[in-house]
Amino acid sequence: MRIGDLLLFAVSARGFFLSVTPSAHYSSTIWKRHGGREKNSPLLLLQLPPSARASSDIPVVEMAVATASRRLGKIFPSSTVFFACDVQERFRDLIHNMPAVISTAKFMLDVSQELEVPCIVTEQYPKALLHTVPELNVGKGPDQINVPIFEKKLFSMCTKEVEEELKKLPDRKDAVLFGIEAHVCVTQTCLDLLDLGYDVHVVCDGVSSQKPHDRAVALQRMQQSGAFLTSAEQVTFQLLHTAENEKFRAVSNLVKKRNAEGINTFSTMSTL
Fold first, then answer.
1. Does 152 qualify as catalytic in the annotation?
2. Per-residue pLDDT, 271
3. What digits encode the pLDDT tens for the residues 169-199?
4. Is 257 a catalytic residue?
């Protein structure tokens, strides 16, 4: 490669660096990540002015840079999957503010039913940690919420079985994530989903750890990696978009019911 050749930097929508290639050969070597989701990202040619070139002792290379698309975190029911991570009975007396986690998880599952958003539930080694808390009412019974439940030993929810389930939902690339523990299974799920090309929305009032400090660090860690931090109500009203939504009244009643329960929520999103 000669000085003065154009270099093409391939950058994903999250700003991940993918490759650098002589521009003459770019068409066959970039946009291979996330199923070509970003094939139409615009290219921006960056050039230094002549005065800067003349005064610099460093050789100047003109570069074409793939500009990252703006990520605003907008979501729609048709593009979304909920992920309920390991809200299990064994953790009930161990997790900081577990009643708030359970209340939020139940609320999110009810919202998923009203808005017809698929939800994936996992259980970490239920032989020792028991099954999902009964308040969430998930299972195969006639009066239960019938959602896929996957047992796992991997900390991340993204097991082979879950990834196979996600292949059935190819147009859903927004993940709403809640559960426990924030600094272990939730964080590793978040990172794996980001790596799979999902926009991840972490429900802050629906995640926790045994130690508040671990929860706080986990929220910041996930945000550093590109996740959106949100709350149960915020993400719910984002999904509704308008009071004219035919589901608005039903979902509003869920919000009122949750608020009336008076479950003690988290006083702060994160405190280090």
1. yes
2. 56
3. 999 999 999 999 999 999 999 999 999 999 9
4. no
